[in-house]
């Protein structure tokens, strides 16, 4: 089938139960720039982002993922996306400018074969350049949205779906018989736009936000410690095996997980080869062999359908946490 030409992971829309608390976390602490706000929503972007937003926080009854969104190369690719998912028999909803998310033009929203609410758009309002407005760089100095990480019970099915959308695969975690535990897949020329964590799903595992340097990852942890909010730090700082990125994971007031992530690598050559980790290699998730805290494997955010109802989840086919690896048995 004729897949749309996806350029990159572009924005996520999260439902938060307390917009003021979310503003403290995502704006005051992480340093996102408020491009636009109304009584029920915040439209945020990082310092390097030249388009309207990469994160929308809207007031909601429950903490959930409203949708993730990929930018496509041309307006015609929005039509292609609609056709691609309609031919798969998936729910699709076309949204003209003004009918969907503020700042976004013509778009199509679908529930993909993995059960995730996904938008494909081309037109988005441009925004003034902040790259060298150092006077506005604050907190963790978030540069841009880098990736989505999604929980799904069938990693091979997730891999096949994103392969059919033209995504490359930079790295995997595999068992001794090459059973697939996790995969990192890309359209932009870095390690990933989307990654799959085995577990019940569809659920959102985390949003990955890029900073320019590792000192901003360390500063993020210091900022939360400084104001006695260290309980928001879930995992790290540390160095990943997969992606080689330096990282820290946080949970926002609603439990939405976010990763501050820097220094992965280029994947843009046409013959770029997948790097395969064995699930028994305890450097795979933390290169220094530090254990992965159980909540990181087990907890994730509910996702909504196109009518805003929480999607039912199904259980993992493969449970990496059950594989006895690393000092604490969790890898
Ligand atoms: O972005 C990522 C890169 C690497 C890892 S892992 O913990 O090294 O598997 C997790 C992650 O998907 O969040
Ligand atoms: Ca902690
Ligand atoms: Fe990540």
UniProtKB/TrEMBL annotation:
Its EC number is 1.13.11.15. The keyword RNA-binding does not apply. Residues 8-123, 144-263 form the VOC domain. GO terms for molecular function: 3,4-dihydroxyphenylacetate 2,3-dioxygenase activity. It is an enzyme of class 1 (oxidoreductase). Pfam families: Glyoxalase. SUPFAM superfamilies: Glyoxalase/Bleomycin resistance protein/Dihydroxybiphenyl dioxygenase. InterPro entries: DHPA_dOase_Mn/Fe, Glyas_Bleomycin-R_OHBP_Dase, Glyas_Fos-R_dOase_dom, GlyoxalaseI/FosfomycinResist, HPCD_C_sf, VOC_core, Xdiol_ring_cleave_dOase_1/2. Keywords: Aromatic hydrocarbons catabolism, Dioxygenase, Iron, Metal-binding, Oxidoreductase. Its cofactor is Fe(2+). Belongs to the extradiol ring-cleavage dioxygenase family. NCBIfam families: HpaD. This is 3,4-dihydroxyphenylacetate 2,3-dioxygenase.
């Amino acid at each position: 089938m004729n897949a749309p030409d996806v350029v990159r992971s572009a924005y996520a829309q999260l439902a938060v139960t307390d917009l003021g608390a979310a503003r403290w976390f995502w704006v005051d602490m992480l340093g996102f720039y408020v491009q636009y706000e109304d009584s029920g929503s915040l439209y945020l972007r990082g310092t390097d982002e030249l388009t309207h937003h990469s994160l929308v926080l809207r007031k909601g009854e429950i903490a959930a993922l409203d949708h993730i969104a990929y930018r496509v190369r041309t307006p015609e690719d929005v039509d292609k996306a609609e056709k691609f998912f309609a031919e798969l028999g998936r729910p699709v909803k076309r949204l003209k400018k003004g009918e969907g998310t503020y700042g976004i033009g013509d778009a199509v929203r679908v529930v993909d074969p993995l059960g995730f609410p996904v938008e494909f758009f081309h037109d988005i309002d441009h925004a003034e350049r902040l790259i060298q407005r150092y006077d506005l760089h604050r907190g963790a100095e978030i540069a841009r949205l880098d990736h989505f990480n999604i929980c799904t019970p069938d990693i091979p099915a997730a891999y096949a779906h994103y392969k059919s959308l033209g995504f490359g695969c930079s790295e995997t975690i595999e068992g001794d018989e090459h059973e697939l535990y996790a995969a990192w897949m890309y359209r932009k020329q870095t390690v990933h736009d989307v990654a799959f964590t085995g577990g019940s799903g569809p659920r959102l595992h985390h949003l990955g936000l890029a900073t320019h340097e590792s000192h901003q990852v360390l500063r993020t942890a210091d900022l939360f410690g400084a104001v006695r909010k260290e309980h928001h730090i879930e995992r790290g700082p540390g160095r990943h095996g997969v992606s080689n990125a330096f990282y820290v994971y946080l949970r926002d007031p609603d439990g939405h997980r976010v990763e501050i992530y820097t220094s992965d690598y280029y994947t843009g050559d046409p013959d770029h080869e997948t790097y395969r980790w064995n699930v028994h290699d305890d450097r795979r998730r933390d290169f220094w062999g530090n254990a992965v805290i159980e909540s990181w494997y087990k907890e994730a955010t509910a996702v909504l359908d196109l009518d805003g109802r929480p999607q039912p989840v199904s259980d993992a086919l493969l449970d990496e946490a059950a594989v006895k690896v690393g000092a604490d048995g969790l890898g």
